[in-house]
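Worked example

This section walks through a single chain of length 146. The input is the sequence exactly as stored; nothing has been trimmed or padded.
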Amino acid sequence: MIKYLLIFPLFMVQFDLQGANHVVKMLNQGSGGVMVFEPAVLKVAVGDSVTFQSTDAAHNSASLPGMIPENAMSWNGQLSRDITVTLTQPGVYAYQCTPHSMMAMVGVIQVGDDASNLETVKTKAQMVKSSFVMNQTRLDDYLAKL
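Given that input, the structure is written out below as C-alpha cells.
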C-alpha cells in the first residue's frame, strides 16, 4: 500500500493508493455452463488484484504458460484454495483450472488498456484448445470480448 500525504494551506489530506480487488469464482456450474470461472472475462487496472475464490471444491487457478505479458509473474494455485494475484504488468492474461483444463475451464483478464500481447495469446490459444474435449470455442469466445 502506498500512502500519500498532501498538505494544502489551511488543511491536510491523506489518502491511500492501492488497487481494487476483484473476485472470480471457481464453479462446477455457472451462467456460462459447466466448469467455469465467473466472471470469465475481466478488465482491471494495473495494480489491481484478483482473488480466485474456491466456491466449489477441486478447482484451482493457474496462469497459462506463454499467455501472460512479458515480465509478468505466473501463478499456480492449490486445489480447493483461494489465491489472490496482483497484476502489475499491463496486457492480456489467460488462465485455467488445471484438473479441468480439458473441459475448457479457462478465463482471461485484460490489465489496463494495453492488449499488445493479444495476438500472441490468440496464437497460443489455438494449441491450448486442441486439448479441449468440450467447449472448443470457449477460449476464443472469451478473447473476442477483449
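What to look for: Residues 1-16 have pLDDT under 50 and may be disordered.
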